[in-house]
Amino acid sequence: MAFFKKLKERLFKSSSKIDEGLDAIVEDGGEEEEVELEQDLIPQKEADDFIASDQSNIEVAQKEPAVEKNVSSKVENLEPEKQKETFVQKFLGRKKEKVTKRKFDDEMLEQLEELLIASDMGVETAMRVAANMAQGNLGRRFSTAEIKKLLANEIEQIMMNVAQPLPIYPKQPQVVLVVGVNGSGKTTTIGKLASQFKEAGKNVVIAAGDTFRAAAVEQLQIWGDRANVPVLVAPEGSDPASLAFDALERAQQDKADLLMIDTAGRLQNRTDLMEELAKIVRVLKKKDPDSPQNTILVLDATTGQNAISQVETFREIAEVSGLIMTKLDGTAKGGVLVALADKFGLPIHAIGVGEQIDDLAPFDPAEFAQALTGSDI
Fold first, then answer.
1. Which domains does the chain have, with CATH numbers?
2. 287: number of Cβ within 10 Å
3. pLDDT, tens only, 57-90
């Protein structure tokens, strides 16, 4: 629950939020209606006790003329059933208020499609989600809260199929290769994962495979010191494939549960850098044909639709097995995660909304859908 609250507070800081867009859509062409608010039911015993108490007050009022003007006296002439209904309504606090509702028509459907496309959900996914929302609902009137809930349910249905924690295998060591473009948050993600697995009792080894960026190595060493996890490094500019091979050998000797290998950030359109990544995979397989057991692609949410091409390219080169999306606190376009789930169906292991260790949490489809749409939990 704590992460969900943080998610709602930090997610999509830009002004073009989905929930704000939904507010505007309903307001545009909507009309006020008086509706009875739903109240939580109370235990029957509490209601009966309250009614019995108030009934005794009425009896007292009937015996004392001096209190004829008491509010209770106003219901003394009601039939018993009407009296009971009045008391229950009073106890439950039933009330009505005016709520803006809008008819779900073709115009509203088009506006929903445009809003979802603008949130980077992608044209195909956006149109499919909007069409599903319209199915059986055209002609009906909806409030903003009802539309948000409708959208959240559709998003949750898509995301439920891909919400999977990073699988842990009995194989020792389990090799987790972490890939992604420059600045996506790979190094920080490895540090957080290693620390969390260490806390869970796993024997973890980290390989600083970004041999061309001293800052990445230093960052991993800080995480390693913090979590008491060894970090294997090589001289600056060394062959990262060679380091990966040596790290796997060391992890085997140490009987490690997990070997997490960082890699240099590389743009998906740089053929030479992508070939270097392919080499790392080939070298690992020479040492262990089943390695790597996991290849995690870390995506930066702020890149929007560019994440689609990143997944396509990295899947071809490194056989990506799962995704982690970071920096959801810095964008209004988190809908791209829905597009990725709909298009590729790859497991989403975790999402990140900050720099602290607990800002990376397992992906929860319901919480994500509610945070994305502004729905209440």
1. 18-32+100-160 (1.20.120.140), 44-92 (no CATH), 174-373 (3.40.50.300)
2. 15
3. 555 445 555 444 444 444 445 555 555 555 555 5
